[in-house]
C-alpha cells in the first residue's frame, strides 16, 4: 500500500529506514504532526495524499479499537421534552423518564410532572459500557397513572457504538444537544421531542480513570427578594372629586394583583 511507497522514497532520499511505523503514527497527535512534517521534507505533502494517510491512520485506530474491548463511562444529560402526546383522557400526560441500557434500568417515576406536555427534566443518567458491542441506550417518556397503570408516551433509541467509533464525534469538545423525536408503536407520527446530549469517556486500563467532568444542569434556584418602595411625595393630584376640593390620597403598589400593598391614607390633601 501507499505506506510502502513512502518508505521507499524515504529510503532512496536518505539512505535510511523510514522512522515510523503506522502504529507509531497513530499513537499520538504529535507523532502525526511529525509524520506530516516528514511528508513535507520528502515532497509528498500533497493534500490528497495527506487526506488519504489520515484516513488510513484513522482506519488503523478503529481496527485496533475493534479488536479490544474498551470500558467507557456514559453520561446521558436529558434537558427537557416538548409537545408530548397525551395518554390521559381530558388532560395532558404526566411525564417521567425511564432510561434503559442493556440490563440496567433507571426510572425517574417519583418525579413525574402532573399534566405537563413540556416538562423540564434536567437530569443526568450514568452508565458504564463496553465497546464494541454496546447495547443501545433507550429513552422512554412515560405517562404516570395511579389507577390504570403507566403508559408509554414515546421512546427513542441511541446507538452508542456508532458514536464511540466515530472519530468526528469523539473529536467534538462539547457534544451537541440533540433534539430527538420519540415514537410509539401504534403510529408513525412523532409523539414529542426530547432534548439531550451524550458523553462517552473511555477508561484506560491500568491508569486511574480520569475523573469525568460533570455539567451542572440543575435549574436555577428560585430566590425570594423583598422589594421596598418608599413614596416620598405626590404632586398635582386632581381633587375635583370632593365637594370640599380635597382628596383622601393613598398610593397602591403591586407586582401582581393578589399581593397589593397600600400606603396609609393621607386624608384631606389639597394638591397631593
Ligand atoms: Ca394527566
Ligand atoms: Ca396520566
- The tally of helices reads 6
Radius of gyration: 33 Å
CATH homologous group name of the largest domain: C2 domain
Structural class: alpha+beta
**How many domains in all?**
3
The number of distinct β-strands equals 12
Uncertain runs are none
Using the coordinates shown, work out and report the CATH topology of the largest domain: Immunoglobulin-like
- Biggest sheet: strands side by side, in what order? 4-1-8-7
Identify the CATH architecture of the largest domain: Sandwich
Q: What about the largest sheet?
A: 4 strands, antiparallel
Percent range for helical residues?
A: 10-25%
Distinct small molecules bound, one entry per kind: calcium ion
**Could you report the average pLDDT, rounded to the nearest whole number?**
85
Order of helices and strands: HHHHEEEEEEHHEEEEEE
Which class of the largest domain in CATH terms?
Mainly Beta
Strand proportion, as a percent range, falls in 25-35%
Q: N- to C-terminal separation? A: 96 Å
Based on Cα principal axes, name the global outline: elongated
Amino acid at each position: 500500500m501507499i505506506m510502502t511507497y513512502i518508505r521507499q522514497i524515504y529510503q532512496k532520499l536518505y539512505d535510511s529506514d523510514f522512522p515510523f511505523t503506522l502504529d507509531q503514527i497513530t499513537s499520538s497527535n504529535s507523532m502525526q504532526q511529525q509524520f506530516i512534517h516528514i511528508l513535507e521534507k520528502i515532497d509528498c505533502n500533497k493534500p490528497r495524499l495527506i487526506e488519504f494517510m489520515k484516513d488510513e491512520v484513522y482506519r488503523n485506530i478503529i481496527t485496533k479499537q475493534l479488536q479490544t474491548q474498551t470500558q467507557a463511562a456514559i453520561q446521558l444529560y436529558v434537558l427537557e421534552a416538548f409537545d408530548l402526546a397525551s395518554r390521559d383522557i381530558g388532560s395532558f400526560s404526566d411525564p417521567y423518564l425511564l432510561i434503559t441500557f442493556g440490563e440496567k434500568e433507571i426510572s425517574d417515576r417519583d418525579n413525574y410532572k402532573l399534566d405537563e406536555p413540556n416538562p423540564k427534566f434536567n437530569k443526568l443518567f450514568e452508565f458504564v459500557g463496553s465497546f464494541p458491542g454496546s447495547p443501545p441506550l433507550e429513552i422512554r417518556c412515560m405517562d404516570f397513572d395511579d389507577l390504570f397503570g403507566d403508559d408509554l408516551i414515546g421512546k427513542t433509541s441511541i446507538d452508542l457504538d456508532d458514536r464511540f467509533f466515530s472519530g468526528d464525534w469523539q473529536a467534538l469538545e462539547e457534544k451537541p444537544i440533540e433534539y430527538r423525536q420519540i415514537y410509539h408503536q401504534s403510529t408513525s407520527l412523532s409523539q414529542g421531542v426530547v432534548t439531550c446530549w451524550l458523553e462517552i469517556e473511555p477508561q484506560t486500563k491500568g491508569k486511574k480513570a480520569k475523573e469525568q467532568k460533570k455539567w451542572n444542569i440543575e435549574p436555577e434556584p428560585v430566590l425570594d427578594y423583598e422589594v421596598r418602595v418608599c413614596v416620598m411625595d405626590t404632586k398635582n393630584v386632581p381633587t375635583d372629586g370632593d365637594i370640599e376640593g380635597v382628596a383622601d390620597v393613598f398610593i397602591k403598589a403591586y407586582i401582581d394583583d393578589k399581593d397589593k400593598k397600600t400606603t396609609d391614607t393621607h386624608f384631606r390633601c389639597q394638591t397631593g
